UniProtKB/TrEMBL annotation:
Superkingdom, taxonomy of origin: Bacteria
EC number assigned by the record: 2.7.4.25
Enzyme class: transferase
Gene: cmk
Binding site for ATP: 7-15
Pfam families on file: Cytidylate_kin (PF02224)
Reactions that this protein is recorded to catalyse: dCMP + ATP = dCDP + ADP; CMP + ATP = CDP + ADP
Organism: Actinacidiphila acididurans
Protein name: Cytidylate kinase
Length: 218
């Protein structure tokens, strides 16, 4: 059982995916955290993240280990816990460039497929290309969307109001454009994915809808 949950930033992917996994007794994998962890490693090691060749050269070096417990999804790089550090604005600003490098994606997709193979009852996997590329035969594919305003308001709230909604909205638009416009497995809705617009829904409503869709397929 693989539940693929894709969509742009700020649509509630992580909260929804974790709650759905917890409710259904499934494992959980945050692939965005993995791309952030690779980016964190590149920055830590002085690799120029805007040089695709330099990033490609190092793509196989960081050893990423993702926890799959939806209650506490920790992630480490080379044995160092980076669950907190991967959320800095420095990493957020650099992640789209790093994740556009094909060698990075090839490596991460291997890690993601291995995690799913090791998950007992099944797994909820969230990202941008899960339904299109990583698990094209996923049991259920969900594509979450929300208005640009709603997404920016949520993300600004998560940052504790340290960044205005307008600045957040501009940063999200830039990251979405990069993620959707890249050549290798861009952010896209799979043809057979079910789109859920979360703009006017509470988290509980979104979770209920996704759980029902999964139950129908079980
Ligand atoms: O989900 P999150 O916002 O943490 O993802 C961070 C970045 O990782 C995205 O903006 C995107 O560049 C990249 N990503 C990706 N493919 C995925 C998941 C995330 O390219 N499956």
């Amino acid at each position: 059982m693989i539940v693929a949950i894709d969509g742009p930033s700020g649509t509630g992917k992580s909260s929804t995916s974790r709650a759905v996994a917890a409710k259904l007794g499934l494992s959980y994998l945050d692939t965005g955290a993995q791309y952030r962890a690779v980016t964190w490693w590149m920055l830590r090691n002085g690799v120029d993240v805007n040089d695709p060749l330099a990033v490609a050269d190092c793509a196989g070096k960081p050893v990423i280990v993702s926890g799959t417990d939806p209650a506490a999804p920790a992630i480490s790089v080379d044995g160092e816990d980076v669950t907190g550090p991967i959320r800095t604005q420095e990493v957020t600003a650099a992640v789209s460039a790093v994740s556009a490098v094909p060698e990075v994606r090839t490596r991460m997709v291997e890690v993601q497929r291995a995690a799913a193979a090791a998950a007992g009852a099944g797994i909820v996997v969230e990202g941008r290309d899960i339904g299109t590329t990583v698990f094209p035969r996923a049991t259920v594919k969900i594509f979450l969307t929300a208005s640009a305003e709603a997404r920016a308001a949520r993300r600004s709230g998560e940052l504790g109001g340290t960044q205005s909604v307008a600045v957040t909205q501009a940063a999200l638009a830039k990251r979405d454009a990069a993620d959707s416009g890249r050549t290798t497995s861009p952010l896209a809705k799979a043809d057979d994915a079910i789109e859920v617009d979360t703009t006017d829904l509470t988290l509980e409503q979104v979770v209920e809808r996704v759980v029902n869709l999964v139950e129908e397929k079980r």
